[in-house]
Every structure is written in C-alpha cells, then in structure tokens.
Amino acid sequence: MKSVKSNQKQKQQQNNDDVSPFNFSKLLDPEASWDKDQLGDVLHWIRQSVGLICGLLWGSIPLVGAVWIVVFLALSSAIVYGYYAIVLKVDEEDFGGHGALLQEGLFASLTLFLLAWILVYSLAHF
Amino acid sequence: MEFSLSSFKYSDSLIVVLISICTAFLCEGISWILIYRTSSYKSLRSSIDKASKKLETMKTVVETTTKKTKTKKKIDRVESSLKESTRDLSLSKFKSGAVVAVVLFIVFGLLNSLFEGKSVAKLPFSPAALVQKMSHRGIPGDDVTDCSMAFLYFLCSISIRTNLQKFLGFSPPRGTANAGLFPMPDPKTN
Questions:
Q1: What is the model's pTM?
Q2: Does residue B163 contact residue B25 with C-beta atoms inside 8 Å?
Q3: Cα B95 off chain centre by
Q4: What distances in angstroms separate CA A69 from CA A91, B3, B184, one per listed residue?
Q5: For the segment B88-113, what is each residue's pLDDT rounded down to a tens digit?
Q6: How far apart, in whole angstroms, are the C-alpha atoms of residue A58 and residue B101?
Q7: Could you tell me which residues come within 8 angstroms of residue B171 by beta carbon, excluding any fewer than 6 positions away?
Q8: Helix, strand, coil abundance in chain B, percent, nearest 5
Q9: Does A64 touch chain B (CB under 8 A)?
Q10: In this complex, do A119 and B17 lie within 8 Å of one another by their Cβ atoms?
Q11: Minimal Cβ distance to A108: which of B11, B121, B163
C-alpha cells in the first residue's frame, strides 16, 4: 500500500514539474510552460484590467455611442491575442484553440467595462 | 470647497454599486460557510480537476496512438466519471443556492422600493430594443439613455460577483458545463 502511494506521489510530482508554478516573471517569458488553468486565469485578469481602464477612459473623455462597445471588444480581444500569440508564443491548440483563449473572461470584462463607462460618464458629466 | 455625494445628479448609482458589492461578499460568505469549506466539496473539486486534465491528456494520446479503441473506451469511462462528479458538485451546492437566492431576492426588492421609477445613471449609448426592456424598466419618458436600477444592478452582479468568485478561487472548474462564451457567476450560489 505504501509503495503504491509513493508511486502516485512521484507521478504527481512529475506532472507538477512539467508546468512551473505561477510567478510574475512567467508573464513575459515565452519559454515558460503554462497550465490551462494558469493561462486562462491570466487572460481573464488581463481582460478585466482592459475593461476597467477602457471604461474609466471612455467615461472621462467622454466617448458616446454604441460603436465604442465594439471598439472595446475588438481592442481587448486584440490585446489578449497579442499577449498569448506574440508575447507568450503559446500553441493555442494545446489550450483548446483561439476560441477558448479569447473567450476567457469576455462576458465579465464586458459588464465591468459597461459599469465603469456608465458610472464615470454619469458622475463626471452631469 | 465642500464636497458631498448630493452634488452628483446620479449619486444613486454609487448606492446601487455599494449595495451590490456588499451583497456579493455576503453571498460568497454564505456559500463558503455552506459549501466551500466542506470536505465533500474540496474532494469533488479536486476529482473534477484531475479528471479534466486526464481527459485532455488521453484525447491527445488517442490522436497519436494506434490503440485507439482501448484509449477511447478509457476516455468514455473518464468522461462519465467527470459528468458524475460535476452532477454531484451541482447537487452539493443546491442548499446554499436556495439561501443565496432568498438573499438576492430581498436585496433586489429593497433596491426596487428605493429606486423604482428613478433614473439612477445615464447611459453613454442608446441600448438595443431588447436591452431597453431592462435598462428603461419603470422609468417615465422616452429618453432611452435613462438607466434603471435593474440594469445597473445586473451589470454590478455579473462583473463584481464573477470577479470576486475568481479572486477567491470559488469559480467553477473549467471542466464543468458552466464554462463557455457567457460564463455567469456560479449559478448554484446565485
């Protein structure tokens, strides 16, 4: 029983060794290996940050019109794509394809963007 | 120079956001007490994560190996085990989901009584007809850029609770059916 358990632990150790634990230096390292969950989380938070920044910016200027929602979606998708394809150089097939990576945090970032945009616009310009 | 919230025409929007933030923390707190700290949830979560990863590895192997029939049978076994664990996870969240639903119902009722018929924010765009049903709900007049509490509360709920769940590590595992283009905050804790 003990030898079976220690074998299982060794296998788990090997699996864990293939993917390095997360640290901030991985964010800009194209040589780093990524776990699907780690990469998904990073892309999620990038989307949220872009959503918040765009919402604050669009509301401050202010930018008015539904077209700016489309601009935000295109911009945030371009940033996420640029990050995983150009900075990290990951093979999207290992992570479920472009669709899976681009949709990480998409809806939450859209609602966060709208919330920030509406709040700043309402409070700063009326 | 005096500064007060009442100097903002749409200061009500801040009250809606603040209440949403407090509600999000309250709901996650209830969920943590009733679900997340239990050993059954932790073990189910762990088994789903492991099964998802194993499934991915096996699907990669089946593309490269000649023993496809054997591997496919193994994949089917792991997939059905994953479905079972996902179902058990959903069931385990049912009790807390009911409590959280009651809390949300009460909060929405409270906000409705406070802000019914009032425009709490100004939209910087004209929403589509379908969205107007929520964004212009209960507001007199024809200005579609007047924003009702319901729409703002909806935006707050999705954005704040999704990110709070993500931050606290309570969002559903990627291997479950709750992933996709429009992942909502975990429905069993809604």
A1: 0.80
A2: no
A3: 17
A4: 29, 32, 20
A5: 888 877 878 888 899 999 999 999 99
A6: 34
A7: B162, B165, B183, B185, B186
A8: 70, 0, 30
A9: yes
A10: yes
A11: B163
Question: Which positions ≥6 away from A18 have C-beta within 8 Å?
Answer: A33
Write the CB contacts of B122 (distance below 8 Å, at least 6 apart in sequence): A118, A121, A122, A125, A126, B10, B145, B146, B147
Query: Are A76 and A53 in contact, with CB atoms under 8 Å apart?
Result: no
For residue B28, what are the contacts with CB-CB under 8 A and spacing of at least 6? B161, B164, B165, B168, B170, B189
Tens of pLDDT along chain A (126 residues) come to 544 444 444 444 344 445 666 677 778 877 878 888 889 999 999 999 999 999 999 999 999 999 999 999 999 999 999 999 999 998 888 888 899 999 999 999 999 999 999 999 999 999
Do residue A119 and residue B147 have CB atoms under 8 angstroms apart?
A: no
Amino acid B180 reads G
CB contact under 8 A, B124 and A108: no
Q: Express each pLDDT in B26-68 by its tens digit.
A: 999 998 888 888 888 888 888 888 888 787 777 776 666 666 6
- B104: Cβ contacts below 8 Å, ≥ 6 apart: B23, B27, B190
Give the C-alpha distances (Å, rounded to integers) separating B2 from A29, B14, B15: 50, 19, 20
Cβ within 8 Å, pair B155-A66: no
Please, which residues bridge with residue B146 across strands? B122
Task: Identify whether the C-beta of residue A33 lies closer than 8 Å to the C-beta of residue A92.
Answer: no
- Distance (Å) from the C-alpha of residue B165 to the closest C-alpha of chain A? 11
CA distance B103 to B2: 37
Quick check: B16 contacting A, CB < 8 Å? no
Contacts with B127 from chain A: Cβ below 8 Å: 66
Based on its alpha-carbon atoms, the radius of gyration of chain B, rounded to whole angstroms, reads: 22
B126 touches chain A (CB under 8 A): yes
